[in-house]
């Protein structure tokens, strides 16, 4: 169970954004449709669904976060369901599975000590714990976030799309146009 009771709750959103950006960046490394790239972002944050316990009580949050949806079974289930709604099913399934594991790895590294991963839950209560994990507000997490943000900008400029492409195509096009103009101006 987590030991740093009281610290990570308010800091979690920063981490969710980093997961989102990670899903977008990795998803763009494959020949995917806009919907598949959107699903790449969704699977990248999907494990944090078990953090909704915070809406009910702090106890529920600490009991279920990093447990119920941060495990192999949930990763297989969500990847399978999302792959069923994808065009390139096999490839999408494997990439979704990879992204969910990247989420677990990022949490393992940067969620602060005591926030272990119950990888085999519900079959086992064994926890992968990292006593050297850096805290949410750390330069390491800021570095990760900055790298992904720079990557997102590079994708916008060179590939002509942003994470908004599937949901808000018009705004996406405007953003790409603005960023490309700014990139040219800076040269
Ligand atoms: Zn997480």
Name the overall outline. globular
Overall radius of gyration:
17 Å
Content of β-strand: under 5%
**Low-confidence runs of at least 5 consecutive residues:** 1-14
Rounded mean pLDDT is 88
- Count all strands and give the number: 0
How much helix is in the residues?
55-70%
Classification by helices and strands? mainly alpha
Task: Count structural domains.
Answer: 1
Task: Looking at this protein, list some descriptive labels.
187 residues, mainly alpha, globular, disordered N terminus, binds zinc ion
Q: Can you walk through the features of this model?
A:
It is a single chain. The chain has one domain (9-186). The N and C termini lie far apart (51 Å). It is mostly helical. It is built from seven helices and no strands. Bound molecules: zinc ion (ZN).
Explain the layout of strands and helices.
Blueprint: H1 12-27, H2 34-45, H3 58-64, H4 72-84, H5 89-110, H6 139-159, H7 169-186
The structure holds zinc ion (ZN).
